[in-house]
UniProtKB/TrEMBL annotation:
Belongs to the derlin family. This is Derlin. Its main location: endoplasmic reticulum. GO terms for cellular component: endoplasmic reticulum membrane. One of its GO terms (biological process) is ERAD pathway. It is a multi-pass membrane protein. SUPFAM superfamilies: Rhomboid-like. The chain crosses the membrane at residues 53-78, 99-132, 152-169. Keywords: Endoplasmic reticulum, Membrane, Transmembrane, Transmembrane helix. It is found in: Endoplasmic reticulum membrane. The keyword Endoplasmic reticulum applies. PANTHER family: DER1-LIKE PROTEIN, DERLIN. Functional component of endoplasmic reticulum-associated degradation (ERAD) for misfolded lumenal proteins. May act by forming a channel that allows the retrotranslocation of misfolded proteins into the cytosol where they are ubiquitinated and degraded by the proteasome.
Amino acid sequence: MAHSFTQEYFQIPVVTRTYTTACVLTTAAVQLEVITPFQLYFNPDLIIRRYQIWRLITSFLFFGSLGFSFVFNIIFLYRYCRMLEEGCFRGRTADFVFMFLFGGIVMTLFGLFANVFFLGQAFIIMLVYVWSRRHPLIRMNFFGLLNFQAPFLPWVLMGFSLLLGNSIVTQTNMFRLASAGISVGHMYYFLEDVFPNQPGGRKLLMTPELLRTMFDRPQDPDYHLLQEQQQGGDLQQDEEPHN
């Protein structure tokens, strides 16, 4: 059984595996009191004046203590990150890493002005937004309650996140994070998918050759797609019609 788990774990594509594992281990370390959230949160003053550079990364890894909100976020992170990596980014790991870098940098700039401490939820919304815009014809079913087209999924998640907030402060923070995720996701989608196809447009987001050298490798012939690649993860989705 342990061998089977290990085999399945390493079948997860590398970016999804790395990010999801880092998030789970960070939360476990906080839960076991090895570290505290105060060592992780985004603080520009500590980053610049005390050179605590790790906060640029750890602010994307912590989703709060173990509970429903944490499980909800990890599930959506894993499913939609993996579906992107196995779908439109399959065989293009360097481009996927570059999207991570683009999103992380823009959200960090957002964090300088928005007074937010953890950016992981915004990053998940960004991933969901990009996936939803690249699958516009898929119909979603949100826990059997709502039916809608895939492009509405980020907005549904925003509303659900607000419902999870138990105070005005928490709800305001959730709104800021969701808005940042949607905004950054739309920036990436527009620059990568829309603008290059416009009259006079051109591709502005160019993946550095260094990333291609580091990450792009031949596809493993024994690689297996996630079953939910043609399903909707936590959300059910109908088959996308083909013209």
